[in-house]
Amino acid sequence: MNLGNLLKISFRALSNNKMRAFLTMLGIIIGVASVITMLAIGQGSKVSIQSQISEMGSNLIMIHPGAGQMGGVRLSRSEMQSLEMDDYDAIRENVTAIKHLSPSVTSSGQFIYGSNNYPSSLTGVNTEYLDIRVLKVDDGTLFTDQQVRSSAKVCVIGQTVVKNLFTNGEDPVGQVIRFNKIPFTVIGTLEAKGYNSMGMDQDDVVLAPYTTVQKRILAITHLHGIYASAVSETATFEATDAITGLLRTNHKLKAGEEDDFSIRTQEEISSMLTSTTNTMTILLACIAGISLLVGGIGIMNIMYVSVKERTREIGLRMSIGAKGRDILAQFLIEAIIISITGGLIGITLGVGASLLVKWVVAWPISVQAYAVFLSFLVCSITGIFFGWYPAKKASELDPIEALRYE
Q1: First to last CA, the chain
Q2: Burial of 174 (0-12, 13-18, 19+ CB in 10 A)
Q3: Domain range for 304
């Protein structure tokens, strides 16, 4: 019997039981739609994280004091004073893989303008910090190297600070705000960046010359951190290794001694977050894949019932010349039609559900072609795998016994 006739017989058999065929497809439909939606959410989160990390500076290197001991007492990083300006100067002079470099000191407190006040942090940096963190001045200017050397009381503020201090729509540039009773002239505002992948408000920032924060606010000579950017992403590890060796030498650390500093890169943060996202995506896909398994079992069950119901029909067809392979092909084609049709409907629903999630919940979504192809492939294999046994049983029926079946 040719393929065309087998297809006609299969479609006729399924159309005679439309509701049963649809209910059989339902497991496949839900499974495929769930897999596509879950993978789209997971992949979208991964792409969003990578994009936000890139916006923070893909070549970023962060150097901070490490936890250590002093007089037998374990100190936290904030209490350690292991980074000095000498370290900054040494990195500047000796590490060729570094493109931009900035000291960093931070103080927390209340910013006051008129009757408004807002709690935030004042970060002391140099003029290269904006290049390192991929920040841009929206209005006004950044402080100059001369203002850094003179410890000028000037600052640049982020949009969150602008909204909380200048509530009447005043132009912040040129205004004087106070931080811990010390006046600072606002000389510029930063472009809005929003929240990053870790939920931190990147616009809640106030930048001033690091010398000003050191001398006028904190009265210290050490640094809270050093920020750098490598000449390229591929040079990040080279720069990190060079900085590690240089700081260990400067701090006179012996072999086997623990570093009194820590170095982190955006690559490490990206890898950690991506690994977590991948794990969650796989977990979600596995849970959704269970629906495909249930759908396959449903196909097997319905096809087995169909064989029982159509035993006399099978016996009649065999008695007029149909061979076992024709019967096998017929029932296998029916199972494949159910799984493929369910797969196509599931793909449509999965893509639609992904777009709906993006539109309603505003989650980052990225529907991947491989997810659609993989889901369709799996549902096709599911139809063949779970349809094979009932089809095989049908092909092995004895024609005489089948005709006698009640």
Answers
A1: 27
A2: exposed
A3: 3-52+272-404
